[in-house]
Amino acid sequence: MFKKMLGAVITAALMLTGTNSIQAETLNLLTWKDYAPKPLKEKFKAETGIDVKVTFSNNEEMIAKLRATRGAGFDLAQPSQDRIQSVQEKYKLYQAMDFSKIEKGLFIQSMLKAVEKNTMVKGKPHAVPFCWGSSGLIVNKKLAPNASDYSDLLNAMYAGRVSYRLKRPTLIGIAFAMGDDPFAKYSNVKEYKMLMDKVEASLIAGKGFVKNYWTNGDNLLQLLRSGEVHVAMGWDGGGWKLHAENPDIDFIAPTSGALGWIDTFAIPAKAKNVSAAYKWINFIMRPENAAVFTNQEKYATASKGAAELTDASIKANFQRSFPQAAIDNINWYPPVPANLEKIEGKLLDRVKSAQ
Amino acid sequence: MEYDLSVKNVTKKFGEFTAVDSVSFDIVNGHFFSILGPSGCGKTTLLRMIAGFEHPSDGTIEIRGQDMKGIVPNKRPVNMIFQHLALFPMMNVAENIAFGLRRRGTPKNEVMPQVLTMLKRVGLPGFEQKRIDQLSGGQKQRVAIARSLILGPAVLLLDEPLGALDLKLREHMKVELKKLQAEIGTTFMYITHDQSEALVMSDYVAVMNQGRFEQVDTPSNLYNQPKTPFVAQFVGENNAWSGVVEKREGNIVEITTSEDHQFRVEVSEDINPSSTVDLFLRPEALLIEPDPSLTDINRFDVVVNSILFDGASSRLLVNPLNSDKEIIVALPQNKQYDHIKPKDKLVVGWSEKAGICFAKR
Amino acid sequence: MKKYRNWGFFIFLLPVLLWLFLLIVLPHIDLLIMSFRFEDDYGELTWGMANYKEFFGEPIYWLTFVRTAIYSLVVTFLTFVIGLPVAFFITKVVSVKYKGALTLLVLLPFWVSELVRVYGWMILLRESGVVNHLLLKTGLLAKPVEMLYNDAAMIMGLVYTTMLFMIVPLISVLDSLEDELIEAAFDLGGNARSVLFRIIIPYATPGIVSGSIVVFMLTLGNYLTPNLIGGKNSLWFTEQIYNQFIASFNWNQGSAFGFLLLILSSLIIWLGLKVSKQNLAKVVQ
ipTM, 2 decimals? Predict the structure, then answer.
């Protein structure tokens, strides 16, 4: 009797695993919220039969997740280009990009080259660009007409009407607003720490003016939308989304320079379905698909020719927020060297616990 | 006479339902007073009104001459022994007994000596540190009584506290409770549905039915001279007939029962010919094969149906000839009747004085 | 027959043991080992107590730790103070007819996730939220007030989130408290105060202790509520553990923090059991 039962259990288990393998192929994508719009997922499924399973994350969590599994569990990740090199050297989270499997012609070449260079580890590139944008200020121009730089996040004029993320972009932005260049000090830990100490002091001094530190994009948009916050640090795409709803709110490139970032595609070291990952990259970078993403999320992509297919409002957004001088003024993130995170992490803890 | 408890025209209504209907009685100091009635007769409600957990819709309750209207339970000079005793499981025996004294603010150094004295009085010396779950049923009972008596209540109210005990212990506790009460002299008011408890322990028993007192009397009077058909049937066993009065000669009436028996009964009540009556007869009043020389005896033939052996209270179950009516006859265990077997034909008889008659209303 | 039973016993026990070992014991051993390793000045991993020293040397860490512990105790106490009357009302005051419905009402908010509940509170309390709107409408306030992002709102949120775990054990323990006991206490001269402190609370102690342990642990280990409702001023120790793992990439420090939290919660629970003279086996039942 007992043997029979055991037999039945084993057969059932085998059948379950069996049906599992018959199930559709999936691509496990670790990415930012909204980076895989539904229409594109559906189109991809129709073309290739592959289901895209998305896990939302951010730079820090992506690294932590992949570190925990030593690069397993996901087939494709989308970290920012500056957060790949040092992490790769230390934890070996990703595998090298096989450029033979990528349709290079789909990309804006300068961007492809830049990412290739910035993610080079042991002579091999580890990522290709997906989209790019900048961090700057999202301002309610009616309520805060004069806000123009990161320093306004610490301005008593906007007491209780300010919000930013307690993460490294804020530290970098404030440092620039102080007239310093944190990127130049990346290579010198000691000087970088001194700079950060100054940033910390001003963040603590200005803590009373903060409404709240926002923790996710929706959170920020809600604060601005309701008029509770007038000046915030955020991404251009978010600012432009709000501008469409309420013309008073817009993204502003700060006078000390917007922070330019590029989000990439990188394949985790132990990805199971590598071919699906390349298929997705080549799929989404097609101009017509990239345009769908841009129209919905407002972020520009590294897809060549997609710009021509985007809505007029996208171009208008860009022209409004980025006059030529502002474009020239963008501070692009260089790769973050190791050990800066530790300094910044402790700093952020101190700011959060300050009264 | 002094009354510890005096209840006057107390009525309690729950919505449309009258639980206690204009009840009055007094309890003489030091008496053991019981209220006996079937479940749902209102006796618990009456007790709870005296303890202060319910409020009378009408009437007054006086304890030692003081009107209890508006006085909350914790200010009344009565204490209650609950059905399940309600000992506090998180306290030991001494803490349970000291609970009332502590609430009363008795000085700390006086509490323990009083508790120890009380434990001795209820026969539990040395039990002060025991946990409640270490006690037997009888010991719990005594702790519950000690816990109440230590406060010196005017009346101790007992709500069927023996109900949860097994038969043997119950028999034992009956005697013990009675002895205890006699010893300490506190007035007890005891409610029960068990007639034997009430009869054995009480000085006075009130029989209660449907919110009313049927009769308040001594146990022997209740048994021998019930005042209502309910009392006759509820207290002790009784054979019952209904019949019509044929004629009356002085105190003797002649009755034809619905089974066509002719009985002569001595009555005290004013019962006239042609009125319908209920006739009650105790099993022990029925004599088996009465001596033919005896006069003033109603005799009739019966067939033995079965023998219910129960030691001293053994009985015969018999049917009158050509009838299904069951009659219970006491069967004394004195060897004289050992020959009786089922299906035997017998003559039974009873004295004209033994029956009790009530006119039907 | 007996042999078979032994076999069956093992077969059923095995998954439990495996589960305990693989998912609880093993990771904890891993974390413990990790907590004793740190990067020296040359970036090499070495053994040592540096992670623990860091905790005691850096006031923001141990202050947050103490703050988290104290606030968790406060939350536990408040849930008890609010939960006891609610449980008493449901079990003793209200007629049996409504008991089920009321218990259900208490349970209802817990059918949605904590995130949704917290967002619910945020919608109510935010500056442009429902409460402010009503207060403005009725003229009680001239200007909207920010009710979120402070300790009071955070504690309230934590109390709300954990309330159920106090009320349910209290309901079950008070269910078994016979009304007779309360009446007896009154009959013996007790008043409301002494009945509460001498009868109801001592009787309910096992329920109070088990409810408190659950509430305390949940609060101590909560991340979402302090973070979202407490906002900019709410540094909770779990957040620091998270920051060590995620923001600073310092897993060794994070592991040390995790172990300190484990030790703290065990210690406080042990103390609680000692003080209330309960034992864990009895309370967990």
Answer: 0.83
